[in-house]
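S.,

Sequence below, as promised.
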Amino acid sequence: MLKNMRGSGQSKSMWIIMGLLMFGLTFGFGLDSLRGANVTSIGTVGDEPIEINTYGRAYQNAYLQASQQLGRAPTPEELDRFGIQDQVLDAVSGQAALDNETAKVGLSVGDNMVRDSIRNSAQFQGLNGGFDNESYRYFLENQVGMSAGQFEARVRKENARALLQNTVVSGVKSDQTMALTLLNFAQQQRSFEWAALTEDNLAAPIAEPTPAELEAFYTVQKADYMTPQTRKITYAWLNPDDLLDEVDVDEAQIRESYDLQSDRFNRAEQRAVDRVVFPSMEDAQAARDRLDASAASFSEIVTERGLSEADVDLGEVSRTDLSTAAADLLFSQSEPGVVGPVESSLGPALFRINAVIQADNTPFEEVRDELRSELAGESARRLVADLVGEIDDELAGGVELEELTKISGLQVGTLDFHAQSDHPLAGYDEFRQAAQAVQEGDFAEVLDLSDGGVFAIRLDGIEEPAQIAQADVGERLVEDFKAVKTKEALLELAERFKPGLEAGGDLSFVGIDLTAVDGINRTSFIEALPPSGVSQVFEMELGDVSVIESGDAVAVVRLTNITDFDPDQDGNDVALDRINQQINAQISLDILDYYSDALQSEAGVTLDRNIINQVNLQMTGGAPAAY
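The prediction came back faster than expected:
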């Protein structure tokens, strides 16, 4: 280890470098299983090798991230579609290009920076937040298989690369035009007056249509009066609920279920808490004194300890989860708040109680019937599962669905399936998908339902959409005619109101009150206003009057005020700086990307696809790579 390690101040730019360095420290080392006897890289950028460990760990992390997002391991086709390999190769080749350039120009860093980089790494911190030699030694021996000298040489290289990156982007500074534009778009507020128009506002209600008017309306709107495409389906359905009478649940089973679910019905008293541990009781008391004097908040204390909210969150704990002293203190409190300091299992600590959860004990008698129903349902689902093999055998033997009624509890029937079908089976997504996909002549197979039931279907035919005769449309035609004519009349009325509203008048002369809405933004929702109303308000100029329509609704809106984002208002300067920093960060990333591409083009990139493919297989659980 470098001699005389001790802390020193860091500039803001150096904290950026440290952040970049941590990526390298945690991402690229320790993949012993990929080290071959002679193969140590997957290629080169100029004279710089792309180490096999660096690529392997990066690929494995990308693979695991894709698995988490999908909730399962991705298939090779999905990995290819996501472009996982190309993305990882771009990243490690870009890193190697920067390392190649630092070597080319002779850029390096001193021992002090290497020392501070290691000392400040969270990876090597002990419980007191300081550097822990044992953690560092364990890391070297068990994670990366390097000597201290080799690892420190690697850290020196990482720092040099970070310096080059920082140099490339150090001059990046956008003016605030883009940030102001974005914030004004997001936080601009508008005020307006509006009124909904209804049939009551018309001089007279819409008259009943004549036969000739109905016939003309029907002729124009014929496409609205069609039967849906209907799939004629025969089904066999085994529903667990239909087998409940065939299962027997005795009292001993119910009592056993209750006893096995003690946590469900008998919850001990708990506290939802956060815990911050300190090196000594004196440090903990000093922090508590600052809290009591309102000189710091609990969250600020957490940050000062180099921790995040997630690090200190213990969740919901009972007495047995805590030291005796901490349990006695926490469970003597009946309200949320900060308590301590007190000796915890990890040392002196302050606790923040976020919630007090009282004990909840439910007697067996209160849940007996509920448990019996659950056990009966489980037994019925097992019966269904036991019968699946018999149903499969019958279908494989050529038995028609109608002949399956001999199986106890199984329903056989027909239904006309379409988008509006109200048959109980049509309420299952699995059935709807199968009913849409099945074709005439398909073999009827047993499929699962979400509640443990099973079904099989046969398509008997498809009825294509057909015109519904006017005589069969009935009263619906009259209602549709009047709704359309009412909407037309309301739109015409709104247009007549516009000139007066634009001149600053109101609608009191027709008994309509304008509703004032103050200070909304683009994400506001006003339930009584048509859904498109807010977005239309933000397209208007000051003083404009617009007619908003949606479905049967018609409204008139007058824009009365526009309040732009004010960077000089209290707190807004913080938002402006934050957005501007994000813009600068994105510009920096883009510049680094272009710079890395240029370095790779100049130096040349060579990749061994055979080694890369073997690494991919090993990282995703395929056959071991043989080097």
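The chain is about 45% helix and 15% strand.

Coffee later?
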